[in-house]
Amino acid sequence: MIDNANRAAWPSAGAIRHNAVTRRQLRIVAVTAAALVMALGGITAAALASGPGRHSSIRVSTRPTPTSLNLSPADVVALQMFTPETGVGIASATPPRCVGTCPGRPSRPPGPYYLASTADGGLHWTATARLPATSTKPSYNNLILAFVTTSEGYVQYATPGAASNTTWLTGDGGRTWSPLRSAGPATSLSLLGKSAWVTATVCPPGVTRGSTCHVDLLSYTFGAPAPATSNVIPVEGVPAAVAGTPEQPTLLGRLDATTGVAAEGGEGGPTSLLVTHDSGRHWQQQPDPCGDLTPAGFVTTSPADWNLYCSLAGGMNQGTVGFYTSTNSGQQWTLDAQANETNSSAGTISTSLGYDLTASGNGHALWLVGSLDDLQVSTDGGSHWSDVSIQTDGTHPILAAAGPTQAWLPTPTGLYHTLDGTTWKRL
Fold first, then answer.
1. What's the pLDDT score for residue 144?
2. Would you state the pLDDT for residue 134?
3. Distances (CA, A) of 117 to 4, 228, 364
4. In whole angstroms, what is the distance from residue 67 CA to residue 129 CA?
5. Is the torsion defined by CA of 167, 170, 174, 180 positive or negative?
6. Which of 66, 86, 329, 390 is 20 to 30 A from 240 (CA-CA)?
């Protein structure tokens, strides 16, 4: 998930990229320790020391990037914009690409991945360094960027079921990378200022999921590979009383340096919302309007104005969905839009399942990215949504926003951009 905290004038809480469905899709339940593949793409390891209780000292240098390697907007698979003009991205000289109507999957396998930058709103991109390689295969939905400047930030690989999911830190524009230490594979990343939060799923040896696993919330000071704090996100509320609840807690979003919102419970079963005000040391249950739906997207437009998207899969990427808003930090919720595969009972919203909810910088536009070929836009706070036909082909790309109303969406058919929040075009 691009971190929504860097998307708006007021730090947005939907940052874990982004977005419970995205995070649930990226939830890692593999047990084995992260196995880094350091022999790809000319990457060399200077030293190796990792694992619980040990200070991680891996530091890798990437092969120099040719200064002549200029990339097109279509090469970008993930991005973060600081302003409407400047930003960073992850790009491949041969990204997954659609041909024709893009039936099924992108037609080309991706090539080497680069850290890249733009100074003209995404029209042109320049590669600055190779990304560190792991056994996790990069794609649109598993590369998360969280940068402080164009040369300082984090890149996270987070693929479902991959034990090699790792968060990497660079302070020199990608010339060198250091992995962050955690007791399990990383599942999400959020950055506010120079304070990073990472979640990691930790299971005993030989176990892949279940009640013996837990989710750690780790906080890092920029530049440090070891976490400053590590706290377990508890299973509390309604799901704690239901036997066989399959899902571990998921961090939905971050409101400020110490406050975050998590969801717990499985799809089709009871769920609960939890809030922490001290970086995960303590959690308290929050009113949850989703019921048996899954909290699937969360974003804020001010400290008090919360937006929550809930969904339950039916079939063929359709299902039951609901959109709720709160004006008092989640203490009470209002149903603004609801629909299932047979009718709409409130507002107008598509039953196509969304997974990435983002707010514009001025809070006037909300965007909900769907799994296949639709992007929904609301300009009235979530009561009514209109469709924008942008083909994502199941790649689950992550939207990035900057300025009052501008946003970008990388897809296998190209990089799309909007100036006003509603009208999109391919760059």
1. 87
2. 64
3. 19, 30, 28
4. 10
5. negative
6. 329
Distance of CA 410 to the CA centre of its chain: 14
In the prediction, which pLDDT does 318 show?
A: 81
Own/partner contacts of 402-405, CB < 8 Å, gap of 24 or more, are: 402/7, 402/81, 402/82, 402/83, 402/84, 402/87, 402/361, 403/83, 403/84, 403/361, 404/360, 404/361, 404/362, 404/364, 405/360, 405/361, 405/362, 405/364, 405/365
Q: Amino acid identity, residue 38?
A: M
| Residues with Cβ within 8 Å of residue 271, at least 6 apart in sequence | 238, 239, 263, 264, 265, 288, 290, 291, 292, 293, 294, 295
Other beta carbons less than 10 A from residue 272's beta carbon: 22
pLDDT of residue 228: 96
Contact 153, 144 (CB under 8 A): no
| Sheet bearing 375-378, strands edge to edge | 354-359, 366-370, 375-378, 386-388
What three-state secondary structure class fits 31? coil
CA–CA dist 60, 133 (Å, integer): 10
- Within 13 Å, how many C-alpha atoms sit on residue 95's CB side? 26
Please state the φ and ψ torsions of residue 283, each to the nearest 5 degrees.
-130, 145
Q: Residue 274 CA to chain centroid, in angstroms?
A: 19
Series of mean pLDDT values for 10-residue runs along the chain (427 residues): 38 38 34 29 32 42 56 91 96 64 50 89 93 67 86 85 78 93 89 93 78 89 95 76 60 93 79 92 93 91 95 84 96 95 82 91 94 86 93 82 96 92 95
If you ran DSSP here, which 8-state letter would residue 75 be given?
G
Edge to edge, the sheet with strand 76-81 lists 70-71, 125-130, 113-118, 87-92, 76-81
Task: Specify the pLDDT at position 133.
Answer: 72
pTM of the model: 0.81
Partners of 357 in the beta sheet?
368
From the number of C-beta atoms within 10 Å of its C-beta (0-12, 13-18, 19+), residue 281 rates as exposed
What is the layout of strands, in order, in the sheet containing 406-411? 400-402, 406-411, 414-418, 424-426
DSSP 239: H
- Distance between CA atoms of 21 and 27, rounded to whole angstroms? 9
**Contact in structure between 291 and 238 (CB atoms under 8 Å):** no
